[in-house]
Amino acid sequence: MGGCSLLFLLVAVMMVFSVGGNEAQLQFNYYESTCPPLEAIVKKELLSFFLSDPTSPSAFLRLMFHDCQVQGCDGSILLDSGDSKVNPPEILSSKNFGIRKREVIEKIKSILEIVCPGQVSCADIISLAAKESVLYSGGPLIQIPLGRKDSKTSRSRQADARLPSPMINVDQFLHIFMSKGMNLEESVAILGAHTLGVGHCLNIVDRLYDPTPDDRIDLGFKVLLRTQCPTRIPITNLTFLPNDLTPMIFDNQYYRNVLRGKGLFGIDSSISRDSRTAPIVMRFAADQNYFFQVFASAFVKLSSTNVLTGRNGEIRRQCNRVNSGKY
Fold first, then answer.
1. Which residues make Cβ contacts (< 8 Å) with residue 296, sequence separation at least 6?
2. Mean pLDDT in the chain?
3. Residue of 6, 16, 152, 133 whose CA lies nearest to 74
4. How far apart (Å, rounded) are the C-alpha atoms in residues 199 and 63?
5. What's the rounded Cα separation, in Å, for the pair 123 and 11?
6. Cα–Cα distance between 105 and 133 in angstroms, integer?
7. How far apart are CA 14 and CA 28, in angstroms?
8. Phi (first) and psi of residue 237, to 5 degrees
9. What is the pLDDT of residue 244?
10. Interval 78-110: pLDDT, tens
11. 102: closest CA among 60, 69, 73?
């Protein structure tokens, strides 16, 4: 980690997320009586995937982000079919290109159905997998409330409309995340998830070959990216580039890169220049512990976005299809 110490911060945001009316709420001890070994089982099953595929933590984190951005954190990204022939599922949206590890969530669900049948939602498994991925990669230990239910619908059109574009600007970015209850610092912190994983040429060629006048990308970095993405229209969608110098470690390297003009996406460059966000980028780049603290708070808010609880939604038997009949 380049000399940076690994600090596991226990961030327990002891708040209850109300969903309205007399419906149930997310709770930190939601499965205390119905499935006590839940988190131990999820952690154990994930470990084998972390060890066999070092890129899997970034895949689980991205899976949660894309699920929560559309209908809310409701497992809709796992459904293989939409609610009608004219409404295909959201996983088929072009903006979900490269989404991986859905089958792992299904495997964990099948184990939990043996141990705690009919108790644990696929939506909760996604959130648990994401927070374990952050921890395994060197990031903070995050406590999240549980009790999400699974949706019965999934629409690619909603994913097309609600998943952010690679060309998003600062105003649009802040609107998206502050509408989810995040403050300014938390909104900038949630972008720090880019510290894990890779990007694809498909999402940066506009920046390389048709840049905006205010995009201050480091020239040497731009030359390097062009050697890996040599054409305006990517020859293949399989070409990928690391998001920062430590793509398998959850740290604050992303913000250090951004300040040097070496952020992969246009929004990375923008937040380093905008007067609202630039001071926060500088503080996160200088203080990893503080970034971890704010990211953990933002993660809890994002993973609790527009959740279904109580009598809303269902607990699917299989994560890729809605239930038919009762348990």
1. 9, 11, 13, 140, 142
2. 88
3. 152
4. 14
5. 21
6. 13
7. 8
8. -80, 0
9. 75
10. 999 876 567 899 999 999 988 999 999 999 999
11. 60
CB 203 within 8 A of CB 253: no
C-alpha 153: how far from its chain's center?
20
Q: How big is the chain, counted in residues? A: 327
Lowest mean pLDDT among 11-20, 32-41, 50-59: 11-20
Identify the band that residue 210 occupies on the pLDDT scale cut at 50, 70 and 90.
confident
Residues 6 or more apart in contact with residue 219 via CB below 8 angstroms: none
| Residues catalogued as catalytic | 66
Own/partner contacts of 230-235, CB < 8 Å, gap of 24 or more, are 231/205, 232/205, 233/205, 234/200, 234/201, 234/202, 234/205
Q: Which two tokens stand for residue 283?
A: 């503080």
For the record, the structure tokens of 128 come out as: 């648990």
Other Cβ atoms less than 10 A from the Cβ of 180: the count is 18
* CB contact at 8 A, 20 and 310: no
CA angle (64 as vertex; 272, 307 as ends), nearest 5: 110
Query: In this predicted model, what pLDDT tens digit does every residue of 21-35 receive, in sequence order?
Result: 323 489 999 999 999
Task: Find out whether 127 and 64 touch, Cβ atoms under 8 Å.
Answer: yes
pTM: 0.89
* Cα dihedral across residues 150, 151, 154, 159: positive or negative: negative
Q: Of 34, 264, 39, 265, nearest to 168 (Cα)?
A: 265
Angle (nearest 5°) at CA 17 between 15 and 23: 135
Instruction: Residue 162: name the closest of 270, 255, 65, 241 by CA.
Output: 65
Residue with tokens 């506009």: 206
